Amino acid sequence: MIFQFTITGQEEEVVQFEKELLDILQKITGSESMIAYEIHFCVHEAILNVIQHTYKWDLTQPIDIRIDVTGINEASQELEISIKDYGRKLEKEISPPSRIGQFQLRKRGLYMISKIMDECVIKPLEKGGNLTYMKKLLNNEN
Amino acid sequence: MLDGKLYVKVSFYKEIIAKVEISGEFTVFYQEFDLLYKELMAYTKIGIYRFILNLNGLTYIDSSGIGVIIRLVTNASKKNSMVCIICDQPQVLKILGISNVDKIIRFVTSYDEGIKYFEV
After folding, report:
1. pTM value?
2. Which residues in chain B are closer than 8 Å to A112, comparing Cβ atoms?
3. Residue B83 covered by a domain
4. What is the DSSP string of B5-33?
């Protein structure tokens, strides 16, 4: 299954997208599952990251979101989330920090994503813009 | 972000302890966030560092909301104090845990318990 969205940072678009996202995640993971909220949180953080750091609060810029759900076997699925921006290209890849200082504010969002997702990286794209890629293996235990 | 609202109610105990009730969704996406942030920072500038945050009505918090809490905690720690948090929302508690903020705040179950902590 593939789900694709293009939004801007306008409050109403983000709210509408996140409602649909939670609905999709709850269908994939089961409506009672906490993991749907956790993945929803990671996508929200990644979008916030783009708006804050790449687009510098220009809320008119586009963000493409793609969610790929692949069945690995009967008990588990792989969820991949790709968030593409069209802003200034990063000089190099950014990975979440493995540790964070008690009162540190910078990169805390990325750190939090890394505690939930199995993979997370922000890569510059050759033709411009950047891609935030996240992956999570879902199984019955989630 | 699901309902587009952030509400705040502030009151004081003996003019030195701020009781702050934050409900709805605590994220920078809402314009009320900026007002809340400025108001809380204004209190810290006039010397108030004892905060009891009631997050029982909070349905969502992201890293921007966490950032506000960390700023209050940073300020309180300079006075060898802490920020007290009342929270019974599982999703919010989970995010406080994931962010490691749960290690630098004091959980209390009521304003009275928070006031007792500050008055000892």
Report:
1. 0.89
2. 63, 66, 95, 98-99
3. yes
4. -EEEEEEEETTTEEEEEEEEEE-TTSHHH
In this structure, is residue B1 part of a structural domain? no
CB contact under 8 A, A48 and B30: no
Identify the CATH number of the domain in which residue B44 sits.
Answer: 3.30.750.24
- Determine the average pLDDT of the residues in B77-91: 94
Domain A2-139 sits in CATH at 3.30.565.10
Does residue A57 contact residue A8 with C-beta atoms inside 8 Å? Answer: no
Tell me the residue type at A140: N
pLDDT tens profile B19-65 = 999 999 999 988 889 999 999 999 999 999 999 999 999 999 999 99
The shortest CB-CB distance from B73 to any of A34, A52, A103 is to A103
pLDDT band for position B4 (50/70/90)?
low
| Residue B85 lies inside a defined structural domain of this protein | yes
Task: Compute the distance between CA of residue A64 and CA of residue A82 in angstroms, rounded to an integer.
Answer: 8
A94: which DSSP letter? Answer: B
> Taking CB atoms and an 8 Å cutoff, what residues of chain A touch B94?
34, 37-38
- The per-residue pLDDT for range A104-114, each reduced to its tens digit, is 888 899 999 99
Full residue range of the structural domain in which residue B39 is found: 6-119
Q: Scan for tokens 């969610």, then name that residue.
A: A67
**Of A40, A117, A132, residue with least CA distance to A87:** A132
Residue A106 forms contact with B (CB below 8 Å): no
DSSP A8: -
Domain ranges of chain A: 2-139
How far is A79 from A24, CA to CA, in rounded Å?
Answer: 12
Q: Is residue B22 assigned to a domain?
A: yes
